[in-house]
Amino acid sequence: MLAPAAFKLQVLDPFLDLDHIPQTVLHLRFVNGTQETVSLAALHLWVDFKAEGDRNAGGCSLRYGSHSPQPAAPLLPGTSVELKLDLSVYDCDPAAKVSIWEARTFSIGAEMFHGGYGWATGSTWLPVKGTRTPDQIITAMLQESTDNWNRGDLDAFATSYKNSPDILFIGHKISRGYDQMLAAYKTGYPTRERMGTLSFTQLEVQPLDAAFATVTGHFHLERTPAGGGNADGYFMLVLEKTAGGWKIVRDDTTALPAAPAK
Fold this sequence. Notes:
Helices cover 14% and strands 45% of the residues. By secondary structure, the protein is mostly beta strands. The radius of gyration is 21 Å and the shape is elongated. The chain has helices at residues 134-150, 154-158, 178-188, 192-195; strands at residues 7-11, 16-17, 24-32, 43-51, 56-66, 80-90, 103-113, 117-121, 126-129, 168-170, 174-176, 197-207, 212-222, 231-242, 245-255. It folds into two domains: 7-129, Sandwich (Immunoglobulin-like); 134-255, Roll (Nuclear Transport Factor 2, Chain: A). The strands form two sheets. A seven-stranded mixed barrel has the order 1-3-6-5-4-7-8. Strands 11-10-15-14-13-12 form a six-stranded mixed sheet, covered by helices on one side. The protein has four helices and 15 strands.
């Protein structure tokens, strides 16, 4: 097992710019303080966020790709390498007290695997830069929800809703409650073929005040005939700014009649 202090990880950027996720480029330096040669292919990064007043915004994993050519050669003992990574944030802690979009500081950490389990220590807490307006934050949240759907992860998709027995759904009937909503989705979309590929267009976000906003838009579900065929419709959502970020509390969705078979 590699010593915990064997690696050092330094963030060379002055801040993390949330405004441009998922296109954020992160500039990092890895220092190999071990007596062994390691491969950067065995690398996993994560990020922790904190908001004002040291409130925990939870941890997230980072999905990254090389922005500049990644060295093919292993990292030799006592050497370092600088990387620029294209960054996106995913798998955020659903129990976080605040949304990452409200974060003010961040810290990066890493795991490297080589003949055991080794740690690269993260940076000290560094600033987060973000000037997103509520409509930009809400639009990003809805995009994340479609990404979760299209990965087949209904549990993650459901986190865009407030986890409350009082949330309301209006479709073919009126129903309430987070648990009931999630169960209905899992019953109605039991397979990836049934889920298809979801997209939202014509989004219009209307903030009502500091705590509530509405969103109207069009949804399209691309599916094979065996999966149920394509589906389209319109929706109006009411969102509440909660301790965990903007969450859907009312969902009024109207499906359009299916197009006649050709």
